[in-house]
Amino acid sequence: MKFARFEYKGDISLGMVKEEEVVVLDGSLLDTYKETDTHYKLADVKLLPPVIPSKIVCIGLNYREHIEEIGAKVPERPQFFLKPPSSLIGHGDEIIFPPGAERVDYEGELAIVIKDKMKDTPEDETLNHVLGYSCFNDVTERAIVMKNIADLILAKGFDTFSAFGPYLVTDLDPNNLELKTYLNGRLMQNDNTKNSVFSVQQILNYLSQCMTLYPGDVVITGTPKGIGPMKPGDVVQVEVEGIGRLRNTARSN
Predict the structure, then answer these.
(1) Which residues does residue 163 pair with via DSSP β-bridges, in sequence order?
(2) Which of 18, 87, 93, 156 has the most CB within a 10 Å radius?
(3) pTM
(4) CB-CB contact of 183 with 201 (8 Å)
(5) What CA dihedral angle connects 240, 52, 137 and 16, to 10 degrees?
(6) 197 class by beta-carbon count within 10 Å (0-12 exposed, 13-18 middle, 19+ buried)
(7) Mean pLDDT score, 87-97
């Protein structure tokens, strides 16, 4: 099923997407919900980030060709860092370059949304705790990272540097999805999640040993080969098979 969190005439609602319409739901995806008689055309609503997480956990160095691209070594365990929820934007929102930015990169990724509390979860049980999947653009000020890798969170944590959406989709195989990123209509990243170093189950098992994951938390699973810079006015789209395309435009502050 495909879900959306959206705004219509100032009101924020949860909905189920059916073709070109969204049916308003009463309740919560994290608990129980039911369909109402209210529905809108998708073209008439503003799509918002599917959830507001307590944290965004990001996996780095998880696609083999990307690891080769940047000259790194294949990690023995998942490498992760955090992004602040204040960096979130939704489909159609603008990615705003911070003052003094030298190189701002797109990084298309698959996002996992957690359904319920996870702590020390066995690998074969991890997918039972997943609510669904979405698209994510892990925007990065690359010049900061290149100067000092210790500033990774700074480089990735600016406001608007976490584009997320447009939908939350259930019932997908997260370990076999095509992932593509387009810059002004040109295909820049093209890979499949099956080429990840660590599967979604391995990632969630490991993270749940390091921290407690809470309902609504977001885990992004790494970017493939083909990262590159954006400039003001560029349009970047992240597409994940079975989910859709997340579209955002870049602009200067």
Answers:
(1) 89, 137
(2) 156
(3) 0.97
(4) no
(5) 30
(6) buried
(7) 98
